[in-house]
Design brief:
The chain is mostly helical. It is 66% helix and 0% strand. It is extended.
Length: 114
């Protein structure tokens, strides 16, 4: 189905201008540049406003409840191995971090020899 009589900037389905999408994108770009300001003004509410110890206690209760209910995921030894390997690969990509770990390990082994 072709709409030959409509101007090229009018959508045949909605009858609106295409540039409204462009304006939305422009507004989104402008808001991206102002994110620091917006984020700074946002106050912490709910879970984010609690101290770490209180968050940990609530999360622990949720985990225990999930296990009692039977809906908690329990890793098989194979899944645990794969997860550990994936985490190790991610950490080892940071060469500076790995060098620091090696230096600390070297210092500790020298202390135990003395």
């Amino acid at each position: 189905m072709k709409f030959h009589n409509l101007p090229s900037d009018i959508s045949p389905l909605t009858g609106s201008n295409h540039d409204s999408g462009r304006r939305r994108r422009d507004r989104a770009k402008k808001s991206e540049t102002n994110k620091e300001t917006v984020m700074a003004e946002k106050s912490k509410r709910g879970f984010a406003s609690m101290d770490a110890e209180k968050q940990r206690a609530i999360a622990s209760k949720g985990g225990k409840a999930a296990h009692e209910k039977g809906t908690a995921h329990e890793f098989t030894p194979e899944e645990a191995r794969q997860a550990g390997q994936k985490g190790g690969e991610a950490v080892s990509r940071n060469r500076e971090h790995m060098a620091q770990i090696g230096r600390e390990g070297g210092r500790k082994s020298r202390k135990s020899e003395a």
